[in-house]
UniProtKB/TrEMBL annotation:
<keyword id="KW-0040">ANK repeat</keyword>
<dbReference type="GO" id="GO:0004197">
    <property type="term" value="F:cysteine-type endopeptidase activity"/>
</dbReference>
<keyword id="KW-0053">Apoptosis</keyword>
<dbReference type="GO" id="GO:0006915">
    <property type="term" value="P:apoptotic process"/>
</dbReference>
<dbReference type="Pfam" id="PF12796">
    <property type="entry name" value="Ank_2"/>
</dbReference>
<dbReference type="InterPro" id="IPR011600">
    <property type="entry name" value="Pept_C14_caspase"/>
</dbReference>
<dbReference type="InterPro" id="IPR002110">
    <property type="entry name" value="Ankyrin_rpt"/>
</dbReference>
<dbReference type="InterPro" id="IPR029030">
    <property type="entry name" value="Caspase-like_dom_sf"/>
</dbReference>
<dbReference type="GO" id="GO:0051604">
    <property type="term" value="P:protein maturation"/>
</dbReference>
<comment type="similarity">
    <text>Belongs to the peptidase C14A family.</text>
</comment>
<feature type="domain" description="Caspase family p20">
    <location>
        <begin position="424"/>
        <end position="554"/>
    </location>
</feature>
<dbReference type="InterPro" id="IPR033139">
    <property type="entry name" value="Caspase_cys_AS"/>
</dbReference>
<dbReference type="InterPro" id="IPR015917">
    <property type="entry name" value="Pept_C14A"/>
</dbReference>
<feature type="repeat" description="ANK">
    <location>
        <begin position="269"/>
        <end position="301"/>
    </location>
</feature>
<dbReference type="InterPro" id="IPR001309">
    <property type="entry name" value="Pept_C14_p20"/>
</dbReference>
<protein>
    <recommendedName>
        <fullName>ANK_REP_REGION domain-containing protein</fullName>
    </recommendedName>
</protein>
<dbReference type="GO" id="GO:0043067">
    <property type="term" value="P:regulation of programmed cell death"/>
</dbReference>
Amino acid sequence: MGNEASKLEDKTLTHYLIRGDFGQVRRLATRQLLSSADAARRTVLMLAADAPETPVHTEKCILYLLELGANPKAADANGDTAAHLAARRDHLRLLTLLSFDAKWLRNENGATPLMEAARTGSWKCAKHLLHLLREPRFNECFKHGNSKRSELLGLKDREGRTASDLARLSGHSELASYIEREMRLVVSKGDKISGLTDQEEAVRQKLERLAEAGDLAGLRRAATRGNCDLPDIRGRTALMWAAENSSCGDEAQWEQLVQLGDPTCATILAESCLHHAARTGNSAAASALLAAGASANATGQCEFTPLMLAAINTPSATAAAFGRVLLDSGADWSLKNKYGRTALDLATQKEKSELAELLRGYDGKIYFDEPLALPRRVVTDHAYDEEPSDDEADPTPEGAISVKAIRHQPSRHEEEDFYPVTNPQGFCLIINISEYDRGSDITFNFEERQGSDRDVDRVKRVFESLRFIVRIKNDLTVEQVDNFLNEIKILPDLAKHGSFVCFLMAHGSHDCIYGRDGFPYKVRKLTGKFKSSVCRSLEGKPKVFFIQACRGSRRDRVDAAKSREQTDEAPAPVFNSAIRPPEGDFLLCYATTEGSAAFRNIDSGSRYVQTACEFIEKYFRELDLITIMTKVSGHLQKNPVRIKDGLFHVVPQKVDQLSRLVSFDPERARKV
């Protein structure tokens, strides 16, 4: 029985670790639990390494486990360490945080993590491991010259195959060529990198010029995953030059660039791309790098972290905002450099008053005793036994569209203020994930989202009446969601449509939803599939996403007698670029603000979706969509959710990047 209890505790801790819930990880983790293993001899760290992707907040969770005594060199029944498992999954964030020695151990087949990354085509992890050996601190050039680097890159498994051999045998010839080029480079005792061919050097210089000129779009067009990390003699890459250029601030371009280049790559002085972003306060670069797996606590020369460099170099006007990006991603404010100075010491010395004030809020606090800078505890979309108030009753009879749509007051806007309306208006996708797989290490405690079928029925009824083509997908895995959206974005019918609507209903956290298999799918990645540069058929057309999912577990409790005194409270300002749409003509409508739970009634559906449908039915002829959703927000804020133990605020959030007004009135359709 004790063994079964230990397995359950392992699963629970792994579950929260993968989701980046530091509060729960800190509550559950013990030294004994971290040393325990399952039947395959896998520890919690190994189970987490076997997840394909984790949010930025997982960094602090992993660091805490390592601080508590998790052994990164422990091996499972196959001799695989956490590094081997992460390399196979291309789990860059976890691999980055492991010690250097733990990244070069062999399994029972004699394979290193680099070999596993090469065999599985895991570009991100392969690059990370290759690029570590550009740094003299790991290469030990003064002691060994280039020999240690050559030895590690030339290691062979039990069958005599190198990493490049395995990549080529597995069909990853481009990666094999990349590894072979890296083996050709020489890091000298004088801390210089050489070995590029004349052609490679010409390409590198071109990328550097584009980055220095601030031509991020040009850099994106010229860059490939094969050339993006070409180093100069000091190990600087195109990503570093661009990160250090404050004019390179296009978030959409950065999101694409970090998929090509290595966000963890560092110079011979151990200064990472994130350090370079800190020199000018390039928050767009920093956010993209962190989301892609860069460590907020990477240390460079003299043990300076990005937060310390921000205190020294970032312009005063943007230093606090840049510091917030780092702190929100798990940066440790208490770290000291080689000279015993913290980021606060340096900010005070450099008279960065706003950043210093921000850091003083953490002064004297222990890093692992504190939640993340912007608390976002990630839990699921809660079902609950709510006692609905009278004003919640659905006024529309089952199966009927409301005939009470108001027409008595004409619109005050001119026709050209609106996006064109077509017949049909467009697709309305409904992705509803109510049932989750059981028995895995990740998803075991995702409860069924009872009541979500009521939301699906209501949305279908409303949007079909508005002449949308409704497509419903239930209980998809992350891969199936991705495949479905990839199919939709290339449909020729999109060119005939005037708009695009998507409802996402699932368990979620602050920046993602969870598929049926329990793996996260970032909202930004999902919406990015429909931006103009990817989906030309929707260029200049409104793309509207309604997201019914938790973004945390906080519930804003109110006293029943005072609940109406806070009705005009606005949603919290958005600092995290991960929740913003990738470009214009997007509207994201969240059921709740970051850090908060989204409520759902198991009998009548979610408060947010049902209210949104009610107000769209009522006002679609009279009002534009933004005005309608503002009314939805006002109504929900005035009517807290009643649960057995009290009243709780519901505060939706809109992220508006529309260029015109959106009307759902089908009578506006242009007759072709």
